[in-house]
Amino acid sequence: MINIPVTIRISLRALKANKMRSALTMLGIVIGVGAVIAMLAIGAGARERVSAEIDSMGSNLLIVFSGSTSSGGARMGAGSEPTITLQDAEAIKRECPAVQDVGPSHSGTAQVVFGNQNWSTVVIGTTVSLLEIREWQIADGRPLTDQDDRSIAKVCVLGKTVVDNLFGAIDPIGKVVRIKRVPFTVIGVLGSKGQTMMGQDQDDIIYVPISTAQKKLFRPSFPGMIQFMMIKARGSEELDSAEEQINDLLHQRHRIGPHQENDFTVKNLTQMMQTAANIARIMTLLLGAIASISLLVGGIGIMNIMLVSVTERTREIGIRIAVGAKTWDIRLQFIIEAVTLSLIGGGIGIIFGQAGSITVAKLAGLPVIISPLSIAVAFGFSAAVGVFFGFYPAYKASLLNPIDALRYE
Amino acid sequence: MNKTLIEVSNLSRLYHVGDSDIAALNSVNLSIGKGEFVSIMGPSGSGKSTFMNVIGCLDTPTSGAYLLQGADVGCLSRDELSTIRNTTIGFVFQGFNLLARTTALENVELPLLYSGAPARQRREQALEALKIVGLEDRIDHQPNQLSGGQQQRVTIARAIVNKAPIILADEPTGNLDTKTSAEIMGLFVRLNSGSGITVILVTHEHDIAAYGKRLIRFLDGRIISDEKIQN
Prior knowledge:
The complex is a heterodimer of chains A (409) and B (231). Chain A is α+β, with helices and mostly antiparallel strands and 409 residues long.
């Protein structure tokens, strides 16, 4: 019969007898568990940020850029040559069955002035569709309408950052701001979307009707030219067919032959986002794996010390066996010692891991999420490390021959 | 009185050394009754320590039978032997073999720990055993705070705490001065005559062996004489 509470007391006493050694052995587990917790927290934070990004982007999105210019052999990149038009956008919406909505856009940076405040921001000329495609809510006032577009109304919808910088505490609805010296009436304020993965502020933006942008603000060289359009497919399964239909239609409309270079680019935003999410997931696994190695090293440290301890206490083991300790009495004594080391180490490691994660969050501005699951896993894992690495020394101790053990010096 | 407690027949214990076998015990036949006080003498290598180890269930014979309280213990498992040591045999060693950094009381409680006695009973029995050996005022001392004689008393208390009917003492006075030796031997005599505990004692010294009632001499793994001691 094995007396567990007594065995635990015997083990604790042995650990107390060698405080410094016990503390140093624990340190390995502290670092291992702390690293696992911190890495998982950082990984989970990154994943959370990516999925928030995907949510804020809207779902099932394609983006079509106008083509690239070549000037003297140097290609200028997507969007540098306005080759797609409003008519293309309307045609896509009309003729591609897999497309649900199209948001044509023409953007530029502009200085915006209200009273004695001014702010440089991105101004996007677009239709009512873009905000719907991006699933962007209006926080205050009203969104752009088709009527605004048809009447080339000088109205605008402001992002939250712009409002904060220009108006402060003043209610912006109905006020007049000057964009490139043209007066615009503020009709609405957008809800906040936060930062993108790259740290870009999505709320630092102004939306105006596309007709107004083209005719009053940016005046492109050819009327109706746009830089890009956001396209929403009818469903995630139809993203690929939408992409194909848009390609075919624009080839036709722009009269591009089979061997000619495209003057437009179609990108699958949702796919890009999913790739980013996958990368974040893999990063988490990788970080976790690296952290696990330090936990493993900590476990080997425990095994090392337990082996030393068994050798050192050969005589003690001999005495215990001689007065009646059974195989499992001895095994449990040493396993409990190892598990105690790893559990106390694990507990301290969890505290350090959390403190570390929070410090990283504060210093690097990374989001971290400490899940109760990761704590439970780290704790369970450190107990398992104790049992696993404690078993061999315990096994060795239990097989000692009492006659030899009693004579051991 | 003379109910047989230990009975060995044709008991041999061989050790492999290199290619050859060395017989530490060679066909030993012996029986020891309840309440006896047996002294065992013999030169080094005569097999007396091996005999004690086998009798004490720390070692198993290579051949031959060993009946302890009528039960054959030659074929028992390691854990079963542990149980027998725990309940039937108390050991007293030359080198004391107490746990360091552990109080006298806890050292004496040790066998009870492994027999699963509840805490309260452990403490009571251990206190009682310490009282028998006259150390009731030293229960909280650790071995390094006790003299040799006191340490040996703690060992004896540990040997009797589980009411074991047999005490095996392997040169219990080897590390003690003459006066302390006499005290320790007096304790053995008291336990033997007062409590009826069977004492089996291994020693080099004739005057220590003389405390016993029966003297057995070993030589080359055999018993060469077995006689009553006249007091």
